[in-house]
Known about the structure:
Layout: H1 7-24, H2 30-44, E1 48-58, E2 61-73, E3 77-82, H3 89-102, E4 106-111, E5 118-123, H4 125-133
Parallel strand pairs: 3-4
Antiparallel strand pairs: 1-2, 2-3, 4-5
Helix pairs in contact: 1-2
Amino acid sequence: MSKFLFEKETYNIRGCLINVHKELGCGFLEIVYQDAFELELKEAGIPYKREQRIQILYKGKPLNSEYIADFICYDKIIVELKAVSELTDVHFAQVLNYLTATNLDLGLLVNFGEKSLHVERIFNYRKNQINQNNP
């Protein structure tokens, strides 16, 4: 039994992220990492969607506002790339909002802006709360 949600898939994604970091290090703009990560995903044969638009619903009705997730891999894992000096609560909230809007379970928040690659697993705890309140 796997001890992490989507363990095999996240392992494969992390491999791509590590390859990008080994090649580029830190200091580039986010778009550079996005382009390089996309090439790694293609090479690894990982299914993905880039800059996926996410419709926001309010009381079941679509709003004019949308989110745009950097990547959705395997149709079930959001991968949000950053190139900042450090991750903040705003970055974590962004991924959690993407998870809530898509009803997906797992997001990876990745920062290439630090000396070492920083990857955080973010679980959609809101989905669990909703499911527990509506059995």
